[in-house]
Design goal:
The protein has about 325 residues and is α/β, with parallel strands linked by helices. The chain is built from 9 helices and 16 strands. Strands 1, 4, 5, 6, 7, 8, 9, 10, 11, 12, 13, 14, 15 and 16 form a 14-stranded mixed β-sheet that branches. Strand 13 and strand 14 form a beta hairpin.
Amino acid sequence: MNTESLFKIKTEEDFNSMALSVFQFQHNNNPVYKEFCKHLKKDVSSVKHYTDIPFLPIQFFKSKKIIVNDAHPEVIFSSSGTTGSITSKHYVSNIQIYKKSYLKGFQHFYGDITNYCVLALLPSYLEREGSSLIYMAQDLIDKSNHPDSGFYLNEVDALVTKLKTMETKGDKVLLIGVSFALLDLAEHYNLNLKQTIIMETGGMKGRRKELIRQELHNYLKKGFGVHKIHSEYGMTELLSQAYSKGDGIFNTPPWMKVLTRDPEDPLTLQSVGKTGGINVIDFANINSCSFIATQDLGKIYPDQSFEIIGRFDNSDIRGCNLLVL
């Protein structure tokens, strides 16, 4: 397929047309996805709209090699996991598509990356290999061309000094961090940042007690002296990100869409406003699978923005047992 066209979606009609093309391509060329559709007895000719397309359960990325025929992975991204646990693997055959997706996505929501000093506080990700978030953060740091951009692992004092220096200079700063590390920083330092975007990527990773989003954001707003906490919604199995500029309400770039499914019937999509399992369409996944049923719970709003509310309990695809957050 012509991958350039994946990022030129302008209308709902464009999106639907592309979704049908990508579905046909992946059904014909991705053996795992084709077998999945076969077991569902999904007649390809009956698919007239993207809401008719089957969504592959995200757990398949743990047990199967999700990639189209004859594609050879340039990079294999893997999820974090506890010792002995099975991690997800995303076989990426064209890393340039991932780069184009996150660069265009960032520009769509925040403008030119060269306008920012990018500081990354991602200790749990830096300490392992195969993180798609680290790959993206490193490239954003490089593309920013700012002499002070960089990663921080345990140099918290140096990071605080840098934030204060940038604030004095009036430079625009993006501090992107994993939740527990940002929370540690917010609790130990009393900052008052006016030029800095604080962006959390989620996850306590077993380092801290899990907090509901509002509670976490209240702590971070107080500790950093900011009015809003931004968030990034992404995962190993996706090559695009959704962003929130505050209050936990996310928006997707034009080549990505979020839907919800009935928690008790994974094959039935829900209407706007109901809480259900999050399904994601991501055209950047052209060479793996663009239609994924995640383990997240959320709701969609009339303007197509969405909120993440919690997760299904463990890997129960039917969602009969829910982790209430």
